[in-house]
Amino acid sequence: MITHARLLEVLEYDRSMGVFVWRVGRQKCKAGSAAGRINIGYVEITIDGKMYLGHRLAWFYVYGTWPESDIDHKDRNRSGNWIDNLRPATTQQNGFNRGAQENNVLGIKGVCVRPGGRYQAQISKNGRNRYIGMFDTPEEAHAAYLSEAEKHHGEFINKE
Question: pTM for this structure?
Fold first, then answer.
């Protein structure tokens, strides 16, 4: 693992933009050029032959210690690594901030359409789906989901 001193030696971090820049030139990179690449939405930066995720490096850069848990991007943008967009989270809390699953035909988290044209609201808690109720519109079902999500997931709820 890279030390904090080594990180400060090789990279400069812009807290408001969430961008790393090389302080020193490397094989293919000049000093002052942007560090890292995007892979599946995440910034990856290789230092001394080891790959690090940009959001974890940002945390380490600012606070001087590695995060003890996951790091959640508040805005759900995987490459949005400005420090005010990052917060420590459990794996479960990080999952609460995700959007609707890809197979959700409505694209509304916590809501699915049922036979007969009604809308079911449900929430996942402790790895189990919990029934909230049936509603006439997807908006009503989503409002019920959000109410439950706020109770159970607090600041980590995704309101989309």
Answer: 0.77
